[in-house]
Amino acid sequence: MKKHRIAVIPGDGIGLEVIEAGKRVLETLVENHPDVNFEFKTFDWSSRRYLEQGEYIPEGGLEELRTFDAIYFGAVGSEQVPDHVSLWDLRLKICQGFDQYANVRPARLLPGVKSRLQGAEKIDWVIIRENSEGEYSGNGGRVHQGLPEEVGTEVSLFTRKGVERIHRFAFDMAMSRPRRKLTLVTKSNAQRHGMVLWDEIFFEVAREYPEVEVDRELVDAITTRMILKPETLDVVVATNLHADILSDLAAALSGSLGIAPTANLNPGGGFPSMFEPIHGSAFDITGKGIANPVGAFWTAVMMLEHLGENALAGRLMAAIEEVIGSGLQAPDLGGQATTHEITAAVCDAVRQKAKAVQAVG
Ligand code: ATP
């Protein structure tokens, strides 16, 4: 029996609702499974905890988290805590502390999902986001605070090691996909230091991957290409900030923020990787029972793949596609289904698929 130890951090807002739903689906996936089991431990690291106890992560928390096989994360953000505090004190502490330098964000149109974009069925992208430095390195400061001469700096930091490893990761990703295409995104016409370093290292690494077809695009230009020629993109590699923005656009073009997943990977395996839906805590719908749990489910698929459970990952993805394709959709996709109804339907579909496999076996 293989047991995967999973740390669960639901966080804030709808994070609690969708991660609870995702846990239910994962438990259903392994019920009566002879070989695989999950051990979940839930951590209450959230803005609520911060407001009550003054910290998101308790002392020794990261050391304990490090012992898990994977982290299943919801969302962080609260109206009572400045966004830069919640982000840096929880999510980025884990991503950067565990050197989860590769952020992977797939986008494609799931069956039955309507996009506002004509031709959205041609979207089949993976956006690779550098996740450890760049614009989010935290390098900067404030001087003369509150005075008329106040200054704030935010300095992007690009290291050869950091850039090279994300490019290599992106090339490997491109190699694993049928089209083997990789698009480099920077803004190296206007930003002539760090961005030019990105370009240079990209083409150095490209020499090791002759089978990958490469091209490059400025970050402003790629937004129009994503909309006008979606079929020309496959894997895209970009910096922390650029890819953050592009992946929200990708999620919206492929239906809604509510269905998009992401993985924060530590490819070397020295630390656990973290899996989360890309949406935030969404206060406007928190507690209403209408959060779309599909992003959290697709996230679970990515986590299963990372854990080497490819058959279970395939079964869950097929169940998600069946349910969403049947028209049972949450309000963000124009439907009326609740979080609970979608979760129950995906659990049923998972059980049916397990039965079908047993019948064949
Ligand atoms: P953050 O600042 O952390 O990105 P946010 O609350 O500003 O978070 P999101 O939560 O990412 O923004 O999403 C913006 C809006 O999209 C939400 O207010 C909500 O209306 C909608 N949305 C996001 N996720 C979902 C979901 N899973 N189901 C339904 N609607 C969603």
What report would you give on this structure?
- Helix 1 links the parallel strand 1 and strand 2.
- This protein has two domains: 1-109 and 257-361, Isopropylmalate Dehydrogenase (3-Layer(aba) Sandwich), CATH 3.40.718.10; 115-125 and 132-254, Isopropylmalate Dehydrogenase.
- The strands form two sheets. A ten-stranded mixed β-sheet has the order 2-1-3-12-11-4-5-10-8-9, with helices on both faces. Strands 6-7 form a two-stranded antiparallel ribbon.
- The longest helix is centred in the last third of the chain and has 22 residues, at 339-360.
- It has eleven helices and twelve strands.
- It is α/β, with parallel strands linked by helices and 361 residues long.
- The structure holds adenosine-5'-triphosphate.
- Adenosine-5'-triphosphate is lined by residues 14, 18, 75, 77, 257-258, 279-282, 284-285, 291-292, 295, 330, 332.
- Adenosine-5'-triphosphate (ATP) binds at residues 14, 18, 75, 77, 257-258, 279-282, 284-285, 291-292, 295, 330, 332.
